[in-house]
Amino acid sequence: MGDNLLMKKRSLERAIQQTKTSDDFFETKVARIEDQLKAYLDQIQRLTEDRVQKIATFENTQKRQLDVRKSSQQLIDTLEEAQAKADRGRLDLAELQIELEKERFERKRVEADLETVRRKAEQLKSHADGSSEAEKLKQELGEYKEILKCIVCHDRRKEVVITKCFHLFCNPCVKGITESRHRKCPVCAASFGPNDVKPVYI
C-alpha cells in the first residue's frame, strides 16, 4: 500500500510538473500573442492616424478645389462681362462711325453749297467792282497824296529827311525847327542838327 501511494505521489508530481510546464508554455505563448496584439494595435493606431490625416488632406484639397472653381467662375463672369462691354463698345463705335459718315456727308454738302454761294458772290462782286473801280483808284490816289504831305503843316510835300530817325517833312517846317532852340523830331522827339537834314526826291 505504501508503494501505491508513492507511485500516486510521483504520478501527481509528474502531472503537476507537466501542468507547470504547460502553464509556462501557455504563459509564454500568451505573452507572445499579447506582444503581437500590441503590435497590431499600434499598427491600427498608425493606420487610423494616417487615415485621419489623409481625410483632412482630402478635405483641404476639396476646399481648395472649391475655391479654385469659385475663382474660375468669377474670372469667367468677369471675362463675360468684359466681352459684353467690348461688344457694346463695338456697337457704339459702329454707330459713331455711321454718325461720323453722316456728318462728313452733310459737311461736304454744306461746303458744296458754300462754294456755290461763294462763286455767286464773286460773280456779283466782279460786276459791282467793274462799276466802282474808278472810284477806288481816286480814293487810293487821294490816300497816296496824303501820305506824301508833311505831317506838320499837312499842306506841302515831304522834301527832306532827318537821318537820325528817318522821318520825312517839308523843308520849311524842318528849317523852322532847326532855327529854334528845341531841335527835336516832331514824331519821335529825337534830337538832330542841321547836318542831319538831307533832301529826298519823291
Q: How do the strands of the widest beta sheet line up side by side?
A: 2-1-3
The tally of helices reads 2
Query: Into which percentage range does the β-strand content fall?
Result: under 5%
Question: Which series of helices and strands comes N to C?
Answer: HEEHE
Return the average pLDDT rounded to an integer.
82
Low-confidence stretches: none
Structural class: mainly alpha
Proportion of helical residues: over 70%
Distance between the termini: 192 Å
Biggest sheet overview: 3 strands, antiparallel
Q: Overall 3D geometry?
A: rod-shaped
Q: Rg from C-alpha positions?
A: 66 Å
Q: What is the β-strand count?
A: 3
Describe the protein's architecture and organization.
With about 200 residues, the protein is mainly alpha-helical. The chain is built from 2 helices and 3 strands. It has helices spanning about 1-150, 170-180; strands at about 160, 165-170, 195-200. The longest helix is centred in the middle third of the chain and has 147 residues, at about 1-150.
List descriptors:
zinc-finger; rod-shaped; E3_ubiquit_lig_Bre1; ubiquitin protein ligase activity; 3 strands; 202 residues
Can you lay out the helices and strands and say which pair or pack?
Layout: H1 2-148, E1 160-162, E2 167-169, H2 171-178, E3 197-199
Antiparallel strand pairs: 1-2, 1-3
Produce a short descriptive summary.
The chain has 202 residues and is mostly helical. The protein has helices spanning 2-148, 171-178, and strands spanning 160-162, 167-169, 197-199.
